[in-house]
């Protein structure tokens, strides 16, 4: 049984890890003030970024759904790993050797880390086998499609031999049959015997955005292979086909930089696009492009719905012209309005997929395919028109009835008006007649689904997004009063939580001892007061979090990541200044109380009491002057 990781090692790994780098593997982050970054939340669907990351503090928080924590929490929730696995992964990433209580070992047996290691070992085995004489059919397949050895190496393409060679190899590395079956590398027969899942096939590794191999896609090569043309890893604890996109690990940075993603239909199409210079291409893995894929793309592309800007990004779908491709186009269109980005369709001439297009017409043809894409709405409208004879009145009327619902589904009012005009032109009909047909289609849709909530993203400038639904579990930063007293207390607490080194122990100790007007913030103040010994340590914020009641965790995380209104070169002065203001306010309160007591004291009967009050007043004035002088 694995031992517990030493607390000092956990703190050291946390301190050495840049949270923004880790989160950035999953979410495109942009600067949001000094020391603050934000992006679309990976834990709930949103169209305006409310997910904030403070790398210096080492914490993140979403002001939409309330999720928050440190780098280990993030990995636990994103990749469904245990706390120990998250620590071990980060330690491996930075090259830090962990130590365990009671001489225990790393918890890498029978869990996610173990399965990932098995997949990595299998990938290395497959790649090495591609050079074997038995892999000639695989090399021939690649060569006939214009892929040389360097292309195979770039995408990690390998070959799975027959005869149970993979199982034999992995067992020599210490993996058990149960582990390999769980990883999807082996199958188990009805009698309990195991066999290599992939045999005599060309292999592509399927990786997550961080480059970890989660599973494999395998292409049939041999005539006596009775299996399907493509065979993928089954659902496993680490591989979920609806939540991965092939090629995203290679395309992610260019997608984020160029705000464009090209969705193709196969592994060889991704290879062809990347080799032709379209390095934003990705593909689904044995399933249609669905809602989970949309969430991944939106996070990476930074797909923000902002009526003040146009062209927030581009999602370009390529479809084969066959029946399967047309069905894929329909499915993509049904989800189109989940994007705030502009959606397009690119269909190659002569029914060629990107791989064949590159092979027959060269790299330039791939780039032209992407550059000549058509808007998704235009593609779907023209597709509906194509099935009708527009030379006859009956055909035009029938085409209008077929295309009007497509235009009616456009929620952006400006786009709807524009496509209504375009549809009238394509049909050669009176625009007012087409507009009436579209309006009728809108009413029919509303009548057919009166109670169904609209989940699509509304691109119209007048749209007001509905806030994400979340359960109230405690106090929140957004619910604090906005009076000057509460704002000062809030700002001072944020300064102490986010920049304790700038505030310093002395000021923090004095500030955490003053009276607060807001009782909610007073709870956080008390936690700061009891945690002062950790103020210079890396686990400062974690120590404060451990001191507050569980219901206050969200509030502390929010205070720890909320942007502070100061430039980087002025941050130290701002944090000290707002803390001094808080202390000075308390001194003024005490001064007012002393002056009131002095007025109520009779000079003739209680001279000693008056003298004591006057000395205390002088001490407060001295303290205020010293406070400002510092």
The CATH architecture of the largest domain comes to Orthogonal Bundle
Helix/strand-derived class? Answer: alpha+beta
Low-confidence stretches: 307-311, 450-472
Overall geometry comes to: flat
**What fraction strand?**
5-15%
Report the average pLDDT across residues. Answer: 85
Distance between the termini: 55 Å
What is the number of helices? Answer: 27
The CATH class assignment of the largest domain is Mainly Alpha
Helix % is 40-55%
CATH topology of the largest domain: DNAb Helicase, Chain A
For this entry, give a set of tags.
Dna Topoisomerase Vi A Subunit, Chain: A, domain 2; single chain; five-stranded mixed beta sheet; 5 domains; alpha+beta; DNA Primase, Chain A; 16 strands; five-stranded antiparallel beta sheet; 10% strand; 630 residues; flat; DNA primase DNAg catalytic core, N-terminal domain
Account of the protein in words:
The protein has 630 residues and is an alpha+beta fold. The protein folds into five domains: 97 residues, Zinc finger, CHC2-typedomain (DNA Primase, Chain A, Alpha-Beta Complex); 128 residues, Alpha-Beta Complex (DNA primase DNAg catalytic core, N-terminal domain); 125 residues, 3-Layer(aba) Sandwich (Dna Topoisomerase Vi A Subunit, Chain: A, domain 2); 66 residues, Pheromone ER-1 (Up-down Bundle), CATH 1.20.50; 153 residues, DNAb Helicase, Chain A. It is built from 27 helices and 16 strands. A five-stranded antiparallel sheet has the order 1-2-3-4-5, sandwiched between helices. Strands 13-12-14-15-16 form a five-stranded mixed sheet. Strand 3 and strand 4 form a beta hairpin. Helix 14 packs across helix 15, helix 17 packs antiparallel against helix 18 and helix 22 packs across helix 26. It is flat, with a radius of gyration of 31 Å. About 4% of the residues have low confidence.
């Amino acid at each position: 049984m694995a031992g517990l990781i030493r607390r000092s090692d956990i703190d050291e790994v946390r301190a050495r890890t840049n949270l923004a780098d880790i989160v950035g593997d999953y979410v495109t982050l942009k600067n949001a003030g000094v020391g603050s970054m934000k992006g679309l939340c990976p834990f709930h669907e949103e169209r305006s970024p409310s997910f904030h990351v403070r790398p210096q503090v080492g914490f993140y928080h979403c002001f939409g759904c309330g999720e928050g924590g440190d780098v280990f929490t993030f990995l636990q929730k994103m990749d469904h790993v245990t706390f120990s696995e998250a620590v071990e992964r980060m330690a491996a990433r930075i090259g830090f050797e962990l130590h365990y209580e009671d001489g225990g070992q790393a918890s890498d047996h029978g869990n996610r880390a173990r399965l990932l290691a098995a997949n990595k070992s299998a990938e290395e085995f497959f790649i090495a086998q591609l050079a074997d004489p038995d892999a000639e059919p695989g090399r021939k397949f690649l060569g006939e499609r214009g892929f040389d050895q360097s292309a195979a190496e770039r995408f990690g393409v390998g070959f799975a031999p027959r005869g149970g060679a993979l199982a034999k190899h992995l067992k020599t590395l210490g993996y058990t049959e149960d582990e390999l079956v769980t990883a999807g590398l082996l199958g188990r027969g009805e009698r309990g015997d195991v066999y290599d899942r992939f045999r005599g096939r060309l292999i592509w590794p399927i990786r997550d955005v961080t480059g970890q191999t989660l599973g494999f896609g395998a292409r049939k090569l041999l005539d006596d292979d009775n299996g399907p043309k493509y065979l993928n890893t089954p659902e496993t604890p680490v591989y979920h086909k609806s939540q991965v996109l092939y090629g995203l690990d290679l395309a992610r940075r260019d997608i984020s930089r160029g705000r464009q993603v090209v969705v193709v239909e196969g592994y060889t199409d991704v290879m062809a696009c990347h080799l032709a210079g379209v390095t934003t291409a990705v593909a689904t893995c044995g399933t249609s492009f669905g809602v989970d894929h949309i969430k991944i793309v939106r996070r990476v592309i930074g797909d923000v719905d902002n009526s003040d800007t146009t062209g927030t990004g581009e999602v370009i779908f390529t479809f084969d012209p066959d029946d399967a491709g047309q069905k894929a186009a329909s499915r993509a269109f049904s989800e189109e309005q989940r994007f705030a980005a502009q959606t397009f369709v690119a269909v190659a001439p002569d029914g060629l997929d990107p791989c064949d297009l590159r092979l027959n017409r060269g790299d330039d043809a791939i780039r032209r395919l992407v550059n000549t894409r058509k808007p998704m709405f235009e593609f779907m409208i023209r597709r509906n028109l194509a099935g009708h004879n527009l030379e006859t009145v009956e055909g035009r009327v029938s085409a209008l009835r077929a295309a009007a619902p497509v235009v009616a589904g456009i929620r952006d009012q400006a786009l709807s008006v524009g496509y209504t005009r375009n549809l009238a032109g394509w049909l050669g009909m009176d625009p007012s007649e087409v507009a009436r047909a579209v309006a009728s289609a809108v009413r029919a849709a509303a009548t057919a689904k009166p109670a169904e909530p609209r989940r699509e993203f509304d691109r119209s400038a007048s749209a007001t997004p509905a806030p994400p639904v979340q359960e109230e579990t405690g106090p929140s930063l957004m619910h604090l009063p906005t009076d000057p007293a509460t704002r000062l207390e809030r700002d001072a607490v944020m300064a102490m939580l986010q920049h304790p080194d700038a505030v310093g122990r002395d000021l923090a100790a004095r500030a955490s001892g003053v009276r607060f007007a807001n009782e909610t913030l007073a709870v956080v103040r008390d936690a700061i007061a009891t945690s002062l010994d950790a103020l210079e340590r890396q686990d400062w914020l974690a120590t404060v979090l451990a001191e507050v009641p569980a219901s206050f965790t969200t509030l502390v995380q929010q205070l720890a990541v909320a942007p502070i209104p100061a430039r980087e070169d002025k941050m130290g002065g701002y944090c000290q200044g707002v803390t001094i203001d808080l202390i000075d306010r308390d001194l003024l309160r005490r001064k007012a109380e002393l002056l009131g007591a002095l007025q109520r004291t009779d000079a003739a009967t209680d001279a000693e009491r008056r003298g004591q009050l006057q000395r205390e007043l002088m001490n407060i004035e001295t303290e205020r002057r010293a406070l400002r002088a510092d």
